[in-house]
Amino acid sequence: MTTHALADLTGTYVLDPAHTRIGFVARHAMITKVRGAFHAFEGTLHLDGSDPSRSSASVTIEADSIDTGNADRDGHLRTNDFLDAPTYPKITFTSTASEQLDDSHFRLTGDLTIKDTTKPISIDFEFTGAARDPFDNQRVGFEGAITVSRKDYGLTWNAALEGGGVLVGDKVVLEFDISAIKQV
């Protein structure tokens, strides 16, 4: 992406929840993956096309909006064994730094808070495009992912398997498919 084209995108954007996915993938029983997503969230991006290092983002996720397609599992994930959504209803990310890696890749560094634990993370994003939609909204798209240790955030519940190993893997991949709308 040229510097001029990126400069044209400078502004403040809000996440479009109807076209954004904030999801995750976790290993189950050491043999398969469980995928899920959060359906209630809000976020703001400030893009600075002339100086991407001045770009920023913040996202707030409703912990109880977790959905893996299985009501019993989702209910368990909302308890103190995992997210403890009644006590810690919000998962947050606030950026502290941004850098452009190449024409279409960026690294966003910031603080991720789950339950009462905040840890710094860096997420690499690919700029997937910009377009004006049929309603005359300027949109931008980004895709990114990061692997985190759930134990780093106090999510330590597990069960031993009879043949060895554990029911829930420690590593969780957080996935971000972002569509954001520029604010006037």
Automatic annotation (TrEMBL):
The residue range of the signal peptide is: none
Q: Which Pfam families match?
A: YceI
Q: Which SMART domains match?
A: YceI
Domain Lipid/polyisoprenoid-binding YceI-like, by residue range, is 12-181
Q: Where is this region: Disordered?
A: 49-71
Of which family is this protein a member?
Answer: Belongs to the UPF0312 family.
PANTHER family linked to this entry: PROTEIN YCEI
From the Swiss-Prot or TrEMBL record, give the protein name: YceI family protein
Q: Which organism is it from?
A: Streptomyces argenteolus
Taxonomy of origin reads: Bacteria, Bacillati, Actinomycetota, Actinomycetes, Kitasatosporales
